[in-house]
UniProtKB/TrEMBL annotation:
Annotated protein name in UniProt: Large ribosomal subunit protein bL33
Domain of life: Bacteria
Keyword field contains Kinase: no
Keyword terms of this UniProt record: Ribonucleoprotein, Ribosomal protein
Alphabetized SUPFAM superfamilies for the sequence: Zn-binding ribosomal proteins
Residues annotated as signal peptide: none
Family the UniProt entry places it in: Belongs to the bacterial ribosomal protein bL33 family.
InterPro entries membership: Ribosomal_bL33, Ribosomal_bL33_CS, Ribosomal_bL33_sf, Ribosomal_zn-bd
Annotated GO CC locations: ribosome
Classification via Pfam families: Ribosomal_L33 (PF00471)
Length: 54
């Protein structure tokens, strides 16, 4: 089954300025805006907001 652009791979970059990233997929139909998730940043040693980067 081919992957389409309805559920693209997005890169989440830390807002703490450490440069740490997570990679995930999102449903563009349900979440058309930039996604923000609160995840653990091992470089900062705490949970911070990760924002979708394009």
């Amino acid at each position: 089954m081919a992957r389409n652009e309805l559920r693209p791979v997005v890169k989440l970059r830390s807002t703490a300025g450490t440069g740490y990233t997570y990679v995930t997929r999102k449903n563009r139909r349900n979440d058309p805006d930039r996604m923000t998730l609160r995840k653990y940043d091992p470089a900062a040693g705490r949970h911070v907001d990760f924002r979708e980067e394009r």
